[in-house]
Amino acid sequence: MLEPSHNNELPAIPGKRYFTIGEVSELCAVKPHVLRYWEQEFPQLSPVKRRGNRRYYQRQDVLMIRQIRALLYDQGFTIGGARQRLSGDEAKDDGSHYKQLIRQTVAELEEVLQALRAK
């Protein structure tokens, strides 16, 4: 689910239950106004709002933000494309793509095995 291409450089997520928007901003390397905008664009992202409309994000929200960030910044998706990818509309395409990748990897490994046995 999570595309960890750039996320390896992001800090580890602490074992807390709730995070403020400032903490999430630092954890995901995204400015707070971008997080507020993404809340409007991605229905999957819905932090808990408490007194004074303060946002409190949970761990799954932080992971979702990191995934959105990877789709937009690292993979070059548009907002609409990222929204569609996250909604699961392309799940069938992804499954066939991964199956094809696995078949190709297995074929390459079999070729390496045959080359090793030939020696």
TrEMBL record:
Q: Which domain of life is it from?
A: Bacteria
Does the keyword section mention DNA-binding? yes
Q: Which InterPro entries does the UniProt record give? A: DNA-bd_dom_put_sf, MerR-type_HTH_dom, MerR_fam
**Occurrences of domain HTH merR-type (ranges):** 18-88
Keywords, in A-Z order:
DNA-binding
Read off the Pfam families from this record: MerR_1
GO function terms (MF aspect): DNA binding; DNA-binding transcription factor activity
Q: This protein is called what?
A: Transcriptional regulator, MerR family
Q: What is the lineage of its organism?
A: Bacteria, Pseudomonadati, Pseudomonadota, Gammaproteobacteria, Pseudomonadales
